[in-house]
Amino acid sequence: MSTGTLYGVGLGPGDPELMTVKAARLISEASVIAYHCARHGRSIARSVAEPYLREGQVEEKLVYPVTTETTDHPGGYEGAIADFYELSAKRLAEHLDAGRDVVVLCEGDPFFYGSYMYMHERLSGRFPAVVVPGVTSVSAASSVLGRPLVQRDEVLTILPGTLPAPELARRLADTDAAAVLKLGRTFGSVREALAEAGKLDDAFYIERATWGEQRISPLADVDPSTVPYFSLALLPSPAYASRQSPVVSPPVDSSGGEVVVVGLGPAGPEWLTPEASAELSAVDHVVGYGPYVARVPQKAGQQRHASGNRVEADRARDALSLAASGARVAVVSSGDPGVFAMASAVLEQVSSGHGAGVRVRIVPGVTAAQAAASRVGAPLGHDYCVLSLSDRLKPWEIIEKRLDAAGAADLVLALYNPASRTRTTQLADARSVLLRHRAPSTPVVVARDVGGPEEDVRITTLGDLDPSTVDMRCLLIVGSSRTRAENGIVWTPRSY
Fold first, then answer.
1. Cβ-count burial of 438 within 10 angstroms (0-12 exposed, 13-18 middle, 19+ buried)?
2. 108-112: which pairs have CB atoms within 8 A and are 24 or more residues apart?
C-alpha cells in the first residue's frame, strides 16, 4: 500500500479569505488535519482553517509541553521541545504509513518561522512532502499599514526579537527597512534597539494584521504590557516615507558641516584610538563600507550609511553632501584612512568641487602593516615601502615597475591587497620580480586577519612563499637583505 502525503499548508496572516485556493482545497480533502496548540487546546491555525474543514476528518492536536513556563525536563526547554517534535512526528508517521494524507496547518508561511518545518525535517525523507506557501505576517503588516516594505535598491532585513538588543541595534542601523518578529516579552528590548539605531520614530507596531482586532500604532507609543506574541515591529520603505511626508529642512549652515575621516585600526575595538572613539561618538552620521560601519559602537540617534566596497567615490560624495547641510559626518576606514583608504577618496571629491564649505579632517588609525609587524617583532625597523598589488585602480605595469625599483633599493616591502578571487596571478609575478634582487632565503611574513577571530601569522621565505595560500585578508611583509628571522622573531636592524 502506498503511503500518504505530508502537506505543510500556509494559512496566511489570519483572515481566512487570504488563504490560497490550493490551501483551502487541500484542507478540505485531507484525511488528517494536524495543528499546534498550547495546553488550553485552542489553536489559531485551526480557527483560520475552520471554514474549510469537513466532518469525518481526524484532528491531531500537537500540544506544546511548554510555552513560556519552566520545565523539569532533564534537557531543559530545548530538550522538552525536541522530544515533543519527535513524538509529534511519530504520531503523524502512523497516519502516513496507513496511506492517509496529513495536512499540517501553519499560520503565515510554513517555512517562515513556522513550526511545520520541524515536522518536515523529520518526515520528508520518508514520505512525500509538499509545502504550500502562505502570505506572511510581514506582507500583511505592510498592507494594513498602507506602506511599501521596500522599493528600488532598498534592503529589507527580517529579524527575530529574541536577538540581544546590541545585535538588533547593529542590524537595524545597517538596513533600509526591517521587520522584527516575535515581540511579546521581547518588546522592551526591541524598542531599546530601535532607539539605539536612531530609528524608533520611524517604526510602527502592528498587532494581529488582517484580523478583526488588529492594532496599528507608532511603536514609540505602545505600552509594553499590552504586547502579545502575534505582533511585529515594522520599518517600512524610507524612500516612500520621504516622498509622502516631506520634512521641512532647517536652514543650511552656510559654512557647511564637517567630515571626519576616521581610522578604525585593523580589527576590534581594542585597536581603536581614544581620539577616533571620541570623534565617532560626536558625529550625526557614520558612512562607510558595511563591515567597517558595523564595527562602530552604536549611539542613539546616529544615522548609519553602509555601502559596498567598490563605491569609494560615491561614498565620499554622499558624506560631503550630508555635511553640506551642516551635519557632522564620520567616514570610516579599516586601518589608517590615509593608507589605501577613504581619506584620499574624500579629498579627491573635494578637489572636484563637491562639498563646498565643508571642513575635512583626518583621524589616523593603526595600520595593517604596523599590526602585522608587531606580531613577529620589528620587520619594519628600517626604511620600508608600502605597495598595493591591486591593479583595479592602476595598471600592473606600474606595479611591476615599482616592485622592481623597491627591490633594487633593498627596501622592506609591506604588500597590501596581495590576492583576491579574481586576482590570482599577481602575487606569483611579484615574487618573481623580487627574486631578481633578493635571495630565496629572504624572510616573508604572511599575516591574515590580524586582531580578528581568524588571525594567522606565518613566517616563511621568498623562495618558499606559496601564493595559493594568500587571499585578500592577508598582508605580506617581505624583508630586505638585512632582515633577520630567528626563533619566530623577525627584525630589520636600524643601521647598515
1. buried
2. 108/10, 108/11, 108/12, 108/13, 108/134, 108/135, 108/136, 108/137, 109/10, 109/133, 109/134, 109/135, 109/136, 110/8, 110/9, 110/10, 110/134, 111/8, 112/136
Q: DSSP letters along 361-383, please?
A: EEE----HHHHHHHHHEETTSS-
Q: What is the mean pLDDT of the chain?
A: 89
Alpha helices (H) along 9-148: 21-29, 44-49, 76-97, 116-123, 137-145
Contact 298, 197 (CB under 8 A): yes
- Half-sphere exposure (Cβ direction) of 457: Cα atoms closer than 13 Å: 18
Cell 506544546, residue located: 64
Interval 340-380: pLDDT, tens:
889 999 999 998 889 888 999 999 999 999 999 999 999 99
pLDDT band at 64 (very low <50, low <70, confident <90, very high): confident
Strand partners, 479: none
Number of Cβ within a 10 Å radius of residue 216:
14
Paired residues of 7 in beta bridges: 103, 130
Q: How far apart are CA 204 and CA 164, in angstroms?
A: 20
| Residues 386 and 339: beta-carbon distance below 8 Å | yes
Return the C-alpha torsion angle 142, 148, 152, 155, nearest 10.
Answer: -40
- Amino acid residing at 306: A
Q: Would you call 168 helix, strand, or coil by DSSP?
A: helix
For residue 110, CA distances in Å to 76, 157, 175, 336 come to 26, 19, 26, 48
Read off the pLDDT of each residue in 286-297 and give the average, rounded to a whole number.
87
Q: What is the pLDDT of residues 190-213, one digit of tens each?
A: 999 999 888 998 999 999 998 877
Burial of 133 from C-beta contacts in 10 A (0-12 / 13-18 / 19+)? middle
* Confidence band of 252 (pLDDT split at 50, 70, 90): very low
Q: Which residues pair with 104 in a beta bridge?
A: 8, 34
Start-to-end C-alpha separation, the chain: 89
Please report the sign of the dihedral spanned by the C-alpha atoms of residue 173, residue 175, residue 176, residue 178. Answer: negative
How does pLDDT run across 90-106, given as a tens digit for each residue? Answer: 999 999 999 999 999 99
Q: What pLDDT, on a 0 to 100 scale, did the predictor assign at position 250? A: 38
Cell, residue 90: 511519530
Let me know how long the chain is. Answer: 496
The closest alpha carbon to 335, from 447, 434, 422, 410, belongs to: 447
What is the residue type of 102?
V
> Maximum CA pair distance of the chain?
96
A 10 A CB-CB count for 192 gives 16
Three-class secondary structure of residue 46 per DSSP: helix
* Residues 195 and 168 sit within 8 Å (Cβ to Cβ): no
